[in-house]
Amino acid sequence: MEFSWLVFGIVVLSALFLDLFVFHRHPHKISLREALLLSAFWIALGLAFAGFVYYTRDYDRTVEYLTGYLLEKALSLDNIFVFILIFSYFKIPEEYRHKVLFWGVLGAIVFRAIFIFTGLELIKHFHWVIYIFGIILILSAIKLLTTEEKEFHPEQTLVYRIAKRIIPLRPHNGDGRFFIREGGKLYATPMFLTLLFVETSDIMFAIDSVPAIIAISRDPFVVYTSNIFAILGLRSLYFAAAGILPLFHYLHYGLSFILGFIGVKMLISDFYKIPVEISLLLIGSAVFISVVASLLVKKKDA
What are the domain boundaries of the chain? Predict the structure, then answer.
């Protein structure tokens, strides 16, 4: 077990080092080609780790890892919509967006560990918690299905009001810095506020995704590693998909189905355990059908 976690830590730290000091050593606008290449790199890394899971675990844990990875990837698409709104609202230049997302991912790695291991411990000691998680997922599915359009009004949020009261703000980005010093006084920039909202949105997003992935597996190593490898590719996925995701107007139906299915899976787990292969098939099919339907309807309208 210790060996598995050690390898995971080395792989993640090495990948983050490459991302920060090699791929993005200098701030620049990330082109579609670069974003696609980076997305391919992160997806290949996540899938390659599935081979390591198979080597150190077994076939069942490997399928659980792949299902959890696909589940997190699918749900993270909805989070990208939120990132688009945040960056647009605070007018963050494109060359600085990767920096915000990089530090956002580091925060997500920490917060996901807290949520995942807390959730697993709660289910271990209080089995009825699984029903609460199932209900949360079903309610989230209904909310996603009935919410037509996301709106972003940070000035109305408690996070914004607290941040503004604690730290003085400056309206300019300070050449990509989170804080600037003027007249001996420290000020936060829109870069910092953007990072704050990215972290907050990921915490809210984890309320759905963590119970969902716990429904797939109870192995802490499988749950956490599949979650983190999916998150690591979220930044490049943002740059690759930010321009085309709004075209997939039926995607939220697929994501709603996934959340609802996982919620039902948790609620009936004591009576019938849905094979993980079926979960993998349904999750992949839901994303594929919703994307294809969006493309077909768009062409028909045109």
Answer: 2-301
